[in-house]
Amino acid sequence: MALPTPSRTARALITGASQGIGEAIARQLGALGHNLILVARRREVLEKIAAEIEAAHGVDVEVYPCDLSEQADVDELLGRLAEVEVNIMVNSAGIATFGPFAEQDWGHEVAQYQLNATAVFRLTRLAVDQMVPRGEGAICNVGSAAGNVPIPNNATYVGTKAGVNTFTEALHYELKKTGVHCTLLAPGPVREATIPEAEKSIVDKVVPDFLWTTYESCAEETLEALSANRRRVVPGPLSKGMDFISTYAPSGLLSPLMGWFYSKMS
């Protein structure tokens, strides 16, 4: 099994492509010869990344600046994609908030839900409608190991990621005989390979460097899993440890502990 073969007419679409996991996956797909569509809010950042990928790999890279937390922007993007052959889709865009749900800015929480969950849901439907009739395609939705367990002070984020986790894994089984790959990326903490001492968070300082997953290694492991049509990929030792603990530890013990830790991040 493999990813769809790069072609002149097809495009790989990556949301959240202006930074982090989305950017790293976009760069690696470009290196594999795929033409790209990069989606994020910041046009200037997308255009810089697009120019670098085009220069390095000779592929075509289009940028679609939009805010996927806004329904009108998603409507417009879906309309533009109706006539585009999307053979790979990576839904990586997402945001998080920390602190008690009742104390969060309501508008920002709604935007978080729309971005993390609703936009993923709608874009995945477009991919399925295109790919299943062709009998080929690949979908990767970025959930989170945090979606395995209820975490106080992170309620909206874990709620959306729990939905993405189970939705994507269910879809994996539905699509198994269609020729369309569907893989959930459920990372824990991911970061740049090196971080200046002054910019390190408390987590960076506590967790040894060798346990971290970099954006580049996360992207590589993700594309390998998507190529093999694995149901779920959890990259890196720290993420794997978190995933195991959050899957099997009793929620009654784990949730208050994680909630206390997350309260320190608000």
TrEMBL record:
- CDD domains from the entry? SDR_c
Q: Where is the Ketoreductase domain?
A: 10-193
Enzyme Commission designation: 1.1.1.298, 1.1.1.381
Annotated InterPro entries: KR_dom, NAD(P)-bd_dom_sf, Sc_DH/Rdtase_CS, SDR_fam
Q: Does the keyword Oxidoreductase apply?
A: yes
* Any GO MF annotation of the entry: 3-hydroxypropionate dehydrogenase (NADP+) activity
Swiss-Prot/TrEMBL keywords? Oxidoreductase
EC supergroup of this enzyme: oxidoreductase
Quickly give the catalysed reaction. 3-hydroxypropanoate + NADP(+) = 3-oxopropanoate + NADPH + H(+); L-allo-threonine + NADP(+) = aminoacetone + CO2 + NADPH
Q: Does the keyword Transmembrane apply?
A: no
What this chain does, per the entry, is described as: NADP-dependent dehydrogenase with broad substrate specificity acting on 3-hydroxy acids. Catalyzes the NADP-dependent oxidation of L-allo-threonine to L-2-amino-3-keto-butyrate, which is spontaneously decarboxylated into aminoacetone. Also acts on D-threonine, L-serine, D-serine, D-3-hydroxyisobutyrate, L-3-hydroxyisobutyrate, D-glycerate and L-glycerate. Able to catalyze the reduction of the malonic semialdehyde to 3-hydroxypropionic acid.
Family per similarity comment: Belongs to the short-chain dehydrogenases/reductases (SDR) family.
Designated name of the protein: NADP-dependent 3-hydroxy acid dehydrogenase YdfG
